[in-house]
Amino acid sequence: MKKNSKDSIVEAAIYLFNTKGFSGTTIRDIAQKANSNVSNISYYFQNKHGLLEYCFLKYFESYIAELESAFLCIDQGAKATLQKMAESIINYHTENMQLTRLILREMSIDSQTVREIMSTYFAKEKYYFKAVIEEGMITGEFRQVSVSFTIVQLKSLLSMPFLNTHYLSEVLHVFPHEPYFTQKYIGEINNWIEGVLTPHHPKELVFESI
Amino acid sequence: MKKNSKDSIVEAAIYLFNTKGFSGTTIRDIAQKANSNVSNISYYFQNKHGLLEYCFLKYFESYIAELESAFLCIDQGAKATLQKMAESIINYHTENMQLTRLILREMSIDSQTVREIMSTYFAKEKYYFKAVIEEGMITGEFRQVSVSFTIVQLKSLLSMPFLNTHYLSEVLHVFPHEPYFTQKYIGEINNWIEGVLTPHHPKELVFESI
Amino acid sequence: MKKNSKDSIVEAAIYLFNTKGFSGTTIRDIAQKANSNVSNISYYFQNKHGLLEYCFLKYFESYIAELESAFLCIDQGAKATLQKMAESIINYHTENMQLTRLILREMSIDSQTVREIMSTYFAKEKYYFKAVIEEGMITGEFRQVSVSFTIVQLKSLLSMPFLNTHYLSEVLHVFPHEPYFTQKYIGEINNWIEGVLTPHHPKELVFESI
Amino acid sequence: MKKNSKDSIVEAAIYLFNTKGFSGTTIRDIAQKANSNVSNISYYFQNKHGLLEYCFLKYFESYIAELESAFLCIDQGAKATLQKMAESIINYHTENMQLTRLILREMSIDSQTVREIMSTYFAKEKYYFKAVIEEGMITGEFRQVSVSFTIVQLKSLLSMPFLNTHYLSEVLHVFPHEPYFTQKYIGEINNWIEGVLTPHHPKELVFESI
DNA sequence: AATGAATGAGCTTTCATTCAT
DNA sequence: AATGAATGAAAGCTCATTCAT
């Protein structure tokens, strides 16, 4: 009768953690939404917190995989690679908006989970970003910039819209769920790469902007 | 005996909501940290949620005031004004990092509070950003851009570093609390204004980058 | 500004104790309804329970006074006196319906208050009822009946309609507040005195009694 | 380990609600007396109020069943039927004195529960009383009386002794728990039916009295 | 005489978890 | 693999009362 109890629990958890926050969600909420029994959560994930950790892992495994895959074409140039990385992340975030929002929010809470589980993933993520930026600076594709501050900006631009989807849709009337958004926002990121990271060779660059 | 019970409750609440999340914080935690009595929370703020709302109002009243004040110099040019607005916000966020982080996180939860309380503030904020961007496009200081997508980016850049302070300090070794950060990050935002918003007049712009 | 704080507190208390029960009413409810301050309750009545006791005394002082006054005409015959006593009680209950209902309900709770405060009043009440019934039995106006069981019935008939006013009005469409009710119900009590207490055929019936 | 948690909770609740009133009883009291856990009250009855409603239903289901069963012999005459109904109610009240007292008291509080839950039961009860009284008036067994006012008296006589058991035992020294009381009080009710409801045909009636 | 801030105890309810099946 | 009853801890909140003014 139940397709897959474990999966439906995770699905329900992502939705509810995202909507009401981790602490604001009860395991009964989750069990009910998943059409499962409360005890199954303990059974599969040890306890409520284990379920959250599972969600974190689920997110980061894929996230890093996307990043890794995009990084493979580094020999085609730093700019192209960075553009591909940004595009991959935006696509991944768009396709997993609930999970992304949950991670981005809970990450900002000061907890053991964040420190322990995520440090390795963040280290990897930093490695790829740093590598591509430094490569670009060496080849002259990028200006000489602060790697850290560049990563700060890049991550800001790639995360925020998915964290504040309400704000986007209700205040700015920009709808991250629509396919048009993804396309357009990738263009904006490329503009940022051009305008902020790339050295100004006047003639060509003017025509890149939308 | 107690100097100011109400204020110390708010202060404790901001710290704890920020550190452990709203749902993850108990009113007993707050009362204890504030050296006050649990009942006083109900007494002053009706209930736990009222205390959160109070924090929201506290943040937004000042935030909008900062924005409004910076907007006053609009006759000195759109770019200068936008730079001043960004600087004001960064300064305000730096000085109220705890509160800012709390607001930015809880805002992303799907609740009545967010919708009802904040809609007016967001409308005002949007008004100022839109006004300055459109002014810039009219005078030719800014390129022709999508107002909404520009606001998305601007808000991303102005918020994210204050939401993920752990990440910045522990992964990137960038410390938002240090005075150097503020100064440097304001420069980065100005770069963004130059590189992304300002039309390329080759000669001058090259020298603006840090 | 306040006419009489004490009186308005009592008035509010009677209404609220009656509507929501003693334990179900908070002193803040009372203070608010009385347009007074919470602390005044402690000031005037020591504490919440003192206020209840005050209500009990208020009721019983008047109640016993009514009974006493009606009993004075005992030399005009037992039946006439009993009728007058019943009429007085019904009138008093009608005029103080809220207070009456409150007393009748709280009396049924097993508490110190009931035992201590009321025992003297109940003793007095019993004395008058017993006196009039026994007088009637001596003079032959009444049949030989059990005094206790007669008092049970009499008190039942004189109390219940005022305890269950909702039931009367909503189920039976009998409205104790209307003047017609009082008049009619006094008639019913007199019927009861006639039919149950008075011998039908003086000579024979005397022997029927238990 | 626990035999029947639900039943023991109900039993404890009836005793305590009766003794201390609904609002005056805490669920900790109940759980302790029932040797159960506080949470089980929520588990079985949703909340404290749900437990009260359960008691109401428990009472009325049986009460109406008694009434219905007694009403079946209506073809044996209205008076006999009414006597049987009264007897059934007195027996039921005697056997369930705690519950009865609880219901009678809480019924007098002005609440949603009373209005919603009980209206149907009261309608049924009224139907049976009305039917038997009207039948009696048609056949000439009963005098022409007001149905409503007769029900008021009947219910008064059948309820009050069970509501004020303290008063009966401590003031009047009448003990409703003793078997003698039931027998005697049924006799009193029959006297009331004879004296108040039955037309006076001197010769015959004399022999009917007990 | 009256007020409003402050207190601490205690209440109802919720929750994550465990146990027996 | 899955269920539902049961548990103890703790959470949010309420309340009668007191204190300082």
TrEMBL record, chains A, B, C, D:
Coiled coil: none annotated. Keywords: DNA-binding. It comes from the Bacteria. Gene3D superfamilies: Homeodomain-like (1.10.10.60), Tetracycline Repressor, domain 2 (1.10.357.10). Residues 26-45 bind DNA. Residues 3-63 form the HTH tetR-type domain. GO terms for molecular function: DNA binding. NCBIfam families: septum_RefZ. This is Forespore capture DNA-binding protein RefZ. It comes from Robertmurraya beringensis. The lineage of its organism: Bacteria, Bacillati, Bacillota, Bacilli, Bacillales.
